[in-house]
What does this fold into?
Amino acid sequence: MCRFFFNCLPSSFCMPSMSEEVIYTDLKFQDSSKTENAQEFGKSGIKVYINFNMQMEKLDKLQSFKEELQSNLSLQLIQNMNSSVKIKNLSNMLQEMATKLCYQLYTKKIEHNCKPCPRKWLWHEDSCYLLRREYKTWKMSEKECQALNASLLKIKKKSVLDFINSHGMNYIWLGLSPTENPINNKYFDETIISSDWLINTTSDISDKMYCGYKYNDYLYYTSCVETRYYFVCEKLANPVKIENTLSD
It folds into this structure.
């Protein structure tokens, strides 16, 4: 509360002095300014609050939209994966059916278009075989097979041994590593799973080295340099082309 003091003269009205009027006016102006500032601050605060709420609402909407997109993307990925698995399974089934059909056609016509082996090669299970009835040393035989992107015959399964025997092939070089310490003749049932089938080729084969060959159902060793036998090249068969199974 502001109190004003007046100087009163006798028999006259009490009037505020000039300095008191100035003080009063200044106080009134200051109070008015504070009120206006408070109102302006209040308005600004309301605007900031409203803008903040609007931005938060937008942010919430964006977050919800992002989560919805992620959910839809996850569902789409799962559907695509399931579709890919189904397509792959169907493709494998068709490939298996085409291979079986091709093999039936191959038994009737060896050079059928669907055969997954080169011309003059024989198809058995998942491999192609080229039977060469030419007498050559082990090294010469190996080089010829390598030139055809193949290797010398490896008998790792009884079914392969039976297949070769069915064509009357004996005295044939095998894809075994040359050795200076040959083993005695062995029955093939004892050697089918042998690690010796993992051939280590060598550029230099001396006349003291021995190489393996097949005769009937037995494995024998003889000189790699001096002896000449038949040989068989083998390599993996190509996948059967489904469209070729439908052509003559």
User: Anything to note?
Assistant: Residues 1-20 have pLDDT under 50 and may be disordered. The two ends are 117 Å apart (CA to CA). Residues 37 and 105 are 99 Å apart (CA to CA).
